[in-house]
Amino acid sequence: MPTLLVVDDEPSVSNVFSRIFREDGVEVVTATTAAAGLTTFDERQPDAVVLDVLLPDRPGLAVFREIHQRDPKVPVILTTHRSESDTAIEATRLGAFDYLVKPLDYAEVRRLVGRAFEIGRLSGDPVSLGPEPGRLPAEADALVGRCLAMQAVYKAIGRVAPQTVTVLIQGESGTGKELVARAVYQHSNRAEGPFLVVNCAAIPETLLESELFGHERGAFTGADRRRIGKFEQCHGGTLFLDEIGDMPLSLQSKILRVLQDQRFERLGGNQTIATDVRIIAATNRDLEGMVAQGSFRADLYYRLNIYTIALPPLRARREDLPLLIDHFLRRSNGELDKEVRGVAPEAMDLLERYPWPGNVRELQSVLKRAVLQTAGPVLLADFLPDNLRHGDAEARAAPSGAVTDWEQLVDRHCREGTDRLYDEVIALAERQVITRVLRRTAGNQVRAAKILGITRTTLRSKMRQHGISLERVVQTDEDEA
């Protein structure tokens, strides 16, 4: 249960937060003075703080500085009347998460506090690298795996984390790119600074520039106050740009400038602001191919590609499945108050034969749903989803290159209400085409790359991404059939 500390001398404000989060499993603790707030902060170690800029015994900005000094990873949201917003903006520039203007908007309160909890979790929860089964607490985040590809990932994290270079993490959706980014941050010399996340695909293009660089009042319609962007908030820390392949071209030049000289201007402003931010970027897209097509800037790609960590898909690391299943069973047990201690042989066989197009994220989701339905100590095959138990055509065919039943694939996604159909279709099509071309060229990668119209480097990257090895394309299930 996350804990929210509200420091405000107006009882009505504390009551608002208690009412808003009563049904959300959030514990709200309150204080009406700066002294009481700091004492409660030390005693309760909250996950986020809401702090009024005007307190009866001390200015809110001074209290913020003390909280930030004690634990800079705890997000602090300022509350202010419109006339005091300059103080809140100054606090945001110094590292506060954001601020709310009174009278409070309930929807904005819920949105900002929810984001603060998430950022606090990302910054504070350690990511374990390559744990042994049963060594981690059920709620721990971990990069689990012993295969050679995952060992290379751990070594790459250890090698690059202490440096100040930009890191590009590549891999399919669901392979754990965010965990790798957090591990790099936590093992770096910036681990005491902020760690902020911007999903470039989730924010509309019109708002993304403001989210990153901030804006001045009047910069556009609806900009009724100055906003401090993530680059300014993240000074001295690490900014994780997720799905950077979806960033519009119009913004890529600005990102390039920040990478080059750590300077930018707020939207609608003319003041150059200096910052000190380390960039970690991630994508599930082929940036090299996008550069060739003109949809991604070549100079930005070269700046991002100083050090690359490639995450293997789950189908390319099947020896890690037992470890992952054990880890997610224990985690699901903790979250759902269950005691599932093992997997029936038939269920394990289905889990091991499925190609996992959604990768580790899909495996975690499947196991959590199965544990939720399980009544006894053993997870049976009956509790697994239909597509695992009945063997959809695409599930059996995708790894070997046999023909995919696209109609059945679309029907399944529509039935399950997923949000990853496009990614799965692209991955399936790429895997099948590359496999067939490599078979036709007898494994000659130079000829295969020419036929496909891509570079040899891109072909090798795609082969790693889709778990294609030359010995696996000599004979397939399609040939045996």
* Cα end-to-end separation: 54 Å
- The helical percent reads 40-55%
pLDDT < 50 stretches: 392-403, 472-481
The CATH topology name of the largest domain reads: Helicase, Ruva Protein, domain 3
Share of β-strand residues: 5-15%
Using DSSP, what is the number of strands?
Answer: 16
Strand order of the largest sheet: 2-1-3-4-5
The top level CATH class name of the largest domain: Mainly Alpha
Structural class category: alpha/beta
Q: How many domain modules?
A: 3
Key attributes of the depicted protein:
five-stranded parallel sheet, disordered C terminus, alpha/beta, 22 helices, globular, Rossmann fold, 481 residues, Helicase, Ruva Protein, domain 3
Topology:
Blueprint (H helix, E strand, L loop, with lengths): L2 E5 L3 H10 L6 E5 L2 H11 L3 E5 L7 H11 L5 E6 L3 H9 L4 E5 L3 H19 L2 E3 L11 E3 L4 H13 L6 E4 L6 H10 L8 E5 L5 H9 L16 H4 L4 E5 L6 H13 L1 E3 L6 E3 L3 E6 L3 H7 L4 H7 L2 E4 L10 H16 L5 E2 L1 H9 L5 H15 L4 E2 L6 H4 L3 H5 L8 H11 L4 H20 L4 H8 L3 H10 L11 H4 L1
Parallel strand pairs: 1-2, 1-3, 3-4, 4-5, 6-7, 8-13, 8-14, 9-10, 10-13, 15-16
Antiparallel strand pairs: 11-12
Helix pairs in contact: 13-15, 19-20, 20-21
Structural commentary:
This protein has 481 residues and is an alpha/beta fold. It has 3 domains: 3-124, Response regulator (Rossmann fold), CATH 3.40.50; 148-310, Rossmann fold, CATH 3.40.50; 314-480, Helicase, Ruva Protein, domain 3, CATH 1.10.8. It contains 22 helices and 16 strands. The chain has helices at residues 11-20, 34-44, 60-70, 85-93, 106-124, 148-160, 177-186, 205-213, 230-233, 249-261, 287-293, 298-304, 321-336, 345-353, 359-373, 386-389, 393-397, 406-416, 421-440, 445-452, 456-465, 477-480; strands spanning 3-7, 27-31, 48-52, 76-81, 98-102, 127-129, 141-143, 167-170, 195-199, 238-242, 263-265, 272-274, 278-283, 307-310, 342-343, 378-379. A 5-stranded parallel beta sheet has the order 2-1-3-4-5, with helices on both faces. α1 (11-20) links the parallel β1 and β2 (27-31). The protein is globular, with a radius of gyration of 25 Å. The chain starts with a strand and ends with a helix.
